[in-house]
Amino acid sequence: MQVYQPPLRDMRFVLHELHGSDTLKDMKGLSEITPDLIDAVLEEAAKLVTEVLAPLNASGDTEGCTYENGVVRTPKGFKDAYRTYVEGGWNGIACDPEWGGQGLPASVTKLIEEMMCSANLAFGLYPGLTHGAYVALSHHAPQELKARFLPKMVEGTWSGTMCLTEPHCGTDLGLLRTRAEPQPDGSYAITGNKIFISAGEHDLTENIVHLVLARLPDAPKGIKGISLFLVPKFLPGPDGRPGMRNGVMCTGIEHKMGIHGSSTCQMSFDGATGWLVGEPHKGMRAMFSMMNSERLSVGTQGLGVGEAAYQSAVAYARERLQGRALSGAKHPDLPADPIIVHPDVRRTLMTMRAYNEGCRALAGWVSRNLDLMERSEDPEERRTAEDFTALMTPIVKALFTDLGFLNASLGMQVYGGHGYIRDHGMEQYVRDARIAMIYEGTNGIQALDLVGRKLPAHTGRYLRAFFHPVLDFIDAHLDHEVVGPLVGPLGKAFGALQLATGFIAEKGLRDPDEAGAAATEYLRLFGVVALGYMWARMAKVAAEKRVEPGADTAFYDAKIATARFYMDRLLPEAAALWGAIKAGKSSMMALDPAQF
Amino acid sequence: MQVYQPPLRDMRFVLHELHGSDTLKDMKGLSEITPDLIDAVLEEAAKLVTEVLAPLNASGDTEGCTYENGVVRTPKGFKDAYRTYVEGGWNGIACDPEWGGQGLPASVTKLIEEMMCSANLAFGLYPGLTHGAYVALSHHAPQELKARFLPKMVEGTWSGTMCLTEPHCGTDLGLLRTRAEPQPDGSYAITGNKIFISAGEHDLTENIVHLVLARLPDAPKGIKGISLFLVPKFLPGPDGRPGMRNGVMCTGIEHKMGIHGSSTCQMSFDGATGWLVGEPHKGMRAMFSMMNSERLSVGTQGLGVGEAAYQSAVAYARERLQGRALSGAKHPDLPADPIIVHPDVRRTLMTMRAYNEGCRALAGWVSRNLDLMERSEDPEERRTAEDFTALMTPIVKALFTDLGFLNASLGMQVYGGHGYIRDHGMEQYVRDARIAMIYEGTNGIQALDLVGRKLPAHTGRYLRAFFHPVLDFIDAHLDHEVVGPLVGPLGKAFGALQLATGFIAEKGLRDPDEAGAAATEYLRLFGVVALGYMWARMAKVAAEKRVEPGADTAFYDAKIATARFYMDRLLPEAAALWGAIKAGKSSMMALDPAQF
To answer: Acyl-CoA dehydrogenase/oxidase N-terminal domain location, by residue (chains A, B) (predicted)?
Structure first.
């Protein structure tokens, strides 16, 4: 059975003990954000996801969305759940109070996002898309559009989408054909077909606000001729309420491997009324505000599913009796030992645990930087936080989703044959997790973003936001009783990352194919080093906390043991990655397409 | 779209050029097996799978099997396809002519098995199970049972199953409860419930022959008290034709992640008539004849799906236009370049290719040894072949299925969002491939078999069948113009394998948990070294053949380039594996179950 309880203890560890949430209140707009308040919010969120969302996860998968004559129905229960979600004010927790939001810091809201992804990934996509559209609009829309749309979107009575993909263009948006004709009233008539539009049509909200990429008549060819438009399903009337139906229509939904409860729509725009968001031909910039926010969210999806798979696997490993411990029966009173005694089951659970907790810690670090870049009073600190976030966005997206899929598959493996049948819900995790490696830019595209944009930006300035703290930490803890043995292997892996960075900077400058050939392994190497750094830091905190009076030593000891496991068993991948990277592009690019 | 053409050129390379099929005719019973005959058989098989089986793969997945009142219906078209398959004589190709089979060597039949797995994995399971049951019966059943059942099973008009699992026991068969009561006529009355029985009930054959594990009344507890029984669905009448319905009934089928066209049945035995196969309480031995054969077949399933995913990905990568080559447009006449120009797509395709062709070569080596152990006149050669097969069985099963799932997922990734929707069939490969890591002993169990049984057997004798030829090859080719640069990295990886073997032998002897902790990574390390050895040997053959007059140099050059890619990019994993292994069990086993 799908087992999930929000890991509140670990979340508190990451937020309060590792990343120091007590300093959040010093940032702009957060004066009331205390650890106690945060804990109360997290506990309420935990109730919501366990009582309202998780119970609909398997049934939503089985039932899926249905399409009929342009109307999309979400699975039974989704509507009520969404109402509860909106009425609880959850939709606006991360939004600006100016538009009715609660203005909570990312450090907190990202944890709630994780809970939602664990409990019901398909459901979470609806508000997730709305939030992405909110981000793009709040940064780029003219004030009048903001005033008309944002309050409804923050409230959650209107939802949002992101309409990029067309049948012939996904990654390469320069090819897109949807056009926008200027109208005398200053609006635009949008015409074209979009596919793969998550939440493009559904029955959860009274209106849907599409952000649509399209070309103006005088647009230059390619990616520099794309503009962004806001196209609502219903045109708001003078009273601000949904009025006339706009010329946008859902013409079908996709049958997918997973996330069945999320509608993936084919959308047809037929002279639909839209308004320009941002400057003409600068649509990609505006879209990237949304995209960057979404990419971090997709990373969170990987972590969320990975955590749910882990908890479900642990529950089964504790209760399934099969075989005896290799070192002698652990429960001679039972017909067999629970499978958690077997080393290979341990290996599986520890792997999942080490990746999940490592990713949660890293996500917390990124969230803190999201807060700093938005709210710090110090421009230097804001800039460093921006650098760091820009650098880590592709890593979080690709690494977390690769690991989320891996963890879902590992969790299923613990169940054996029982994992492959539908009843236990483990195979749903595998199917659901798989999409996250693809959408919002495939993980290969993330890797290219890292080596092609983030690495060379400002002659490597972004890197410093990561390299400096890691290097300082390693240097400072070589002789630390608990952390010393961990920073040894971390230092080696970090050395490989530095070598790989130099390799790409040098070779990639002369030949972009060399950078491309190294990209995926480089992103992974960066990721495993980043997780290693998080584990070393977590071990340090745990070592300090465990000796405090009344400390929960079992929790801290588990942290330290898992840190050791990470260094022992998972970080060695770094050697393989550097080995592969330094081989260069030669054999990878040797074949003529006809030879495949 | 699912694209699949049997890779006949590569199969001929493996069979004729790499493993020397011209010597097959020197083995017992194979005097007529010439390379020309083999090619003709493979071409006919290729027709069968592309014309009859592949067209039913996607539709079989969509429709699935249906259950009603004990009756299971296979998807539309399966019955006709099965009839064509049986009428073509394909069911008995690997069986003994004594029972009506064609007695083709494994070197040939395993390639046909691969084709079937590529074309339609779910369909292939029906004859696959029959063959496994055939193997067990032909080795262990009394002559009278053989005479009554084998001709029908070889012909394919009766099919077979393997009834092991019960709700509370899968891996740990010692817990099983199904009982067998001796009857006055020498038969047994079998009573109990089995689950996860592939092909347990269906509409393809007029009878189904279940091999059932059960306990005799005087059975010792645990695994040493299990006997094997043959329990047909219909009791054969005096005329040998299916007569009275036996007390065995399908009570339901599972809804699974994939292989929807294969029925996975809950079976109820209610005093069903059965006959003992092999000795009382020695059922596991008989079952293992079947299981070992099945484990190799499941490995083939991984390879089969991996190959189909590869071909489908290549087809899409050649035709999908998106973006421009990093080094400048390759097709300025087109709106964009085909995605095969991008390094990361290359990396993906080369990875799939290197694993598939490497696995095919390794499977060919194992097949040759299957033939030798059965047909060599030299007892020493037979014993070495047996050692080698015993050693490689868990490796082939686990490595090939891990890689098959990886390749299916990589193939899907090439399609981006189009891979996640059902239309292109790529997500089916992922769902279908996943089961192979689980059934016939999870891959973790394979790893335990390798370190716990195969490594220590006869104080390491099995290992020699692999280590000696690899070592000899490396030593002999250090200065070879083409192979020399490949055996360098191979030698390093092989060194890591030797160290890991010593580590496990030493530590595992004192503490079985240490062997268990190393098992999965050790199997993988063994596997990647074995593939590396295959690639070095293939490169050698290619280097020799490419200079022959009229040689297909494009093919041989691609072989050599792929060998380089394997050493450059995939073999480096060995370093990470050895790094993980040598860390030992300490951090893996540190947590108390309550700490998870």
So the answer is: 40-156
Interface subset of A 167-206, CB within 8 angstroms of B = 168-172, 174-175, 195-196
A444/B513 CB distance under 8 A: no
**Could you report the predicted ipTM of this complex, rounded to two decimals?**
0.97
Q: Which residues pair with A248 in a beta bridge?
A: A269
Q: Which residues of B touch A427 (CB under 8 A)?
A: 256-257, 434
User: How far does CA A133 lie from the centroid of its chain?
Assistant: 16
**What pLDDT, on a 0 to 100 scale, did the predictor assign at position B515?**
97
The predicted structure's pLDDT at residue A126? 98
Q: CA A149 to CA A134: how far, in whole Å?
A: 9
Per the structure block, which two tokens stand in for B111? 């390639």
Is residue A64 a part of any domain in this protein? yes
Helical (H) or strand (E) element with A289: helix A283-319
Tell me the pairing of strands B179-182 and B158-163.
Answer: unpaired
Residue at A423 is within a domain = no
From chain B, pick out residues whose CB is under 8 angstroms from the CB of A63.
none
Task: For residues A115 and A236, state if they share a domain.
Answer: no
Q: What pLDDT does residue A473 have?
A: 98
Copy the structure tokens of residue B483: 């192979």
Q: Per the domain annotation, does B151 fall within a domain?
A: no
Distance CA A270, CA A480 (A): 66
Give the CATH number for residue A110: 1.10.540.10
Find the radius of gyration of the CA atoms of chain B: 24
Shared-domain flag, residues A122 and A165: no
Give the angle B4-A420-B177 at the CA atoms, nearest 5°: 125
pLDDT for B3 equals: 95
Asked whether residue A575 falls in the same domain as residue A461, the answer is yes
Domain range for residue A541? Answer: 444-584
Q: Where are the alpha helices (DSSP H) in B88-223?
A: 106-119, 121-140, 143-155
Q: Which of B264, B203, B191 is CA-nearest to residue B72?
A: B203
pLDDT of residue B410: 98
Strand pairing category for A234-236 and A242-245: antiparallel
A440 among known catalytic residues: yes
Walking along chain A (596 residues) 10 residues at a time, the average pLDDT comes out as 96 98 95 96 98 98 98 98 98 97 97 98 98 95 97 98 94 94 98 98 98 97 95 96 97 98 98 97 88 94 98 98 94 96 98 98 98 96 97 98 98 98 97 97 97 95 97 98 97 98 94 97 98 98 97 97 98 98 97 96
| pLDDT the model gives residue B291 | 85
B159 has which bridge partners? B208
Cβ partners under 8 Å of residue B328, min gap 6: none
**Residue from A243, A280, A256, A186 nearest A432 by CA:** A256
Q: How many CB atoms lie within 10 A of CB B369?
A: 26
Q: How far is B576 from chain A (nearest CA, A)?
A: 5
With a cut of 50, which residues of chain B have pLDDT below it?
A: none
Query: B555 in a domain, yes or no?
Result: yes
Q: Which residue has the tokens 């009796």?
A: A321
H/E run at residue B213: strand B207-214
What DSSP character marks residue A228? E
The answer to whether residues A568 and A464 belong to one domain is yes
For B366, residues 6+ apart whose C-beta sits below 8 A from its C-beta are B110, B296, B388, B389, B392, B393, B396
The count of domains in chain B is: 1
Three-state DSSP at A104 gives: coil
Identify the pLDDT of residue A499: 98
Packing angle, helices B121-140 and B106-119, rounded to 10: 150
Q: How far apart are CA A440 and CA B146, in angstroms?
A: 59
pLDDT of residue A291: 85
Residue B205 to residue B127: CA distance in whole angstroms? 10
A595 touches B557 (CB < 8 A): yes
Identify whether residues A37 and A167 lie together within a single domain: no
* Residue A224 DSSP SS3: helix
